[in-house]
Amino acid sequence: MVIFFARTEHLPSTLELCRLLPPDWLASWAQRHGEDVRDDTKRQSLGALWLLHLAGGQGNLQYDALGRPFFWNSDAEFNLTHTQGLLFCAYEKSATGRIGIDAESLVRDRDKDYGRLALRWFSPREYACFEASPTPQHFLTLWTRKEAYVKHTGSGLSQLRDADTFSIAEQGALRFLTCRVEDAILSLCLSEDAGTPTQIAKILWNADARRAEISYQDISFAEFCE
After folding, report:
1. What is the pLDDT of residues 52-74, one digit of tens each?
2. Is pLDDT at 226 greater than 70 in this prediction?
3. Cα separations in angstroms, 208 against 54, 84, 204
């Protein structure tokens, strides 16, 4: 599995992204999103597909009823996510199961009432874990695990409250991995036999050379609540 990420300010322009992406991907994206999309939103959305393209993604890009992109009739799996100023793509050419990925920024909404949100959205075990260390980082660690799970299952955010990631992990079919990437918490939900990524690729667009510059960084995922 490979994980690519980029800051939004390091993306190509929207027009450049349209030139860089496969035409059939653009057609599928336009069919899903329509024409009335703000330029910054469009750049971010197409930028995530650009990361997928750089990661080696190939196939007939489609969107399901909930808007989750996938490759039709392919063994490849991927998932995309974004948070304030950051885009992420996890891609596996020959996947053993679906991939769920979620990221949340640590630099926004630090004054939010995380205790109230945890009481509303977390299972009793998740809430007890959060209460032991009620910090924004701990909340976002648990939150991104839950979002990664519902993105893995494709069930949508309507199932977020009912998901108990501790019980799910104990059943053994799925794993939850979490790490910090720059100023964000990143979590993955993977099948039990999926490998653990050890590197992440940071992408910067060199506008003068009109090419992507890729630098690889070592990462270390934690598999348990901390």
Report:
1. 999 999 999 999 988 899 999 99
2. no
3. 19, 26, 12
The answer on pLDDT for 158 being more than 80 is: no
Cβ neighbors of 178 (< 8 A, separation 6 or more) are 141, 144, 145, 185, 186, 187, 188, 221, 222, 223
What pLDDT does residue 225 have? 54
β-strands 69-72, 199-206 pairing: unpaired
pLDDT on residue 224: 64
- The owner of tokens 């939150």 is 143
* Domain range summary for the chain, segments of one domain joined by +: 2-218
Q: Give me the mean pLDDT over the 153-176 stretch.
A: 87
Count of CB atoms situated within 10 Å of the CB of 138: 19
Q: In this structure, are residues 204 and 10 in contact, taking their beta carbons and an 8 Å threshold?
A: yes
- Supply the pLDDT for residue 181: 96
